[in-house]
Design a protein that fits this description.
By secondary structure, the chain is α+β, with helices and mostly antiparallel strands. The chain has helices at about 100-120, 150-160, 170-175; strands at about 5, 15-25, 30, 35, 50, 55-65, 75, 95-100, 125-130, 135-140, 165-170, 195-200, 205-210, 225-230, 235-240. A six-stranded antiparallel barrel has the order 2-3-7-6-5-8. Helix 1 crosses helix 2 (about 150-160).
Length: about 240
């Protein structure tokens, strides 16, 4: 059953009421709707808790997609649960799903900053990773000579504009007609459901992305390039971190 992914329309939602619609063979809890971002595109799944009506709190260690089309999300219980004596969740139960907001907000800042990095370095992306306060992107760059300070300065210039960040949807056919929108060589936008989500940073960037982002890039604050590593003949890994 498709999960209503509330984080796609509002990444600032911290919790929501939801109903248990399935329990996977691995014990993952599938809800009819969720604020938990599921692990994909280099961004980890959210952690947090499911709050039950009797006051019991079940710790969630991860959120993952159960299908290739990325329509159903399972909430993975932390190793220490179930709590001895606590009633087990069953299909039909109502819970409140609440994320660890501090970690999520940090990842929103880093993910948006990585989009800006792809503007500074307009090369094919071969990999990326989003952390709570740092991240990295790998680029296929014809020649070396990248300077950390110069990239940091350009990022600061863009962040100072406080440009708005928004999302919209286009059809699979529209994306196929505009292949230049795809920057990543390693992660392809999920297609097959009929629509693809775009993230736009006003007057700066537009690309397919299912991740969570800040509303204004000024929220990112100071960010610096902390390292540039050679990963291959033409591949460079650029690391960034929040100041």
């Amino acid at each position: 059953m498709p999960t209503e992914c509330l984080f796609r329309e509002d990444s600032y939602l911290k919790d929501c009421e939801a109903r248990v619609v399935a329990i996977t063979e691995q014990g993952g809890i599938v809800l009819d709707r969720t604020v938990f971002y599921a692990n994909s595109g280099g961004q980890p799944g959210d952690t947090g808790a499911l709050l039950m009506g009797d006051g019991t709190s079940l710790a969630i260690a991860d959120a993952i997609y159960t299908d290739k089309s990325k329509t159903e999300i399972a909430h993975v219980l932390a190793p220490e649960v179930p709590i001895p004596g606590a009633p087990a969740l069953k299909v039909g139960d109502t819970v409140r799903a609440a994320i660890d907001w501090d970690g999520r907000y940090g990842r929103m800042k880093i993910h948006t900053a990585l989009h800006l990095l792809s503007v500074v370095l307009p090369y094919p992306i071969t990999g990326a990773s989003v952390g709570d306060s740092s991240g990295r992107a790998d680029f296929n760059i014809p020649e070396a000579g990248l300077e950390k300070d110069a990239i940091t300065a350009r990022l600061a210039e863009m962040i100072a504009t406080n440009a708005a960040v928004s999302s919209r949807w286009i059809s699979d056919a529209e994306l196929e007609a505009n292949p230049g929108l795809i920057k990543s060589m390693s992660v392809r936008p999920p297609m097959g459901t009929g629509q693809v989500r775009l993230i736009e940073i006003d007057k700066l960037d537009l690309q397919p992305c299912g991740g969570t982002h800040v509303r204004k890039i000024g929220e990112i604050g100071a960010v610096a390039v902390t390292g540039i590593e050679k990963k291959g003949k033409q591949n460079r890994r650029v690391r960034i971190a929040l100041a």
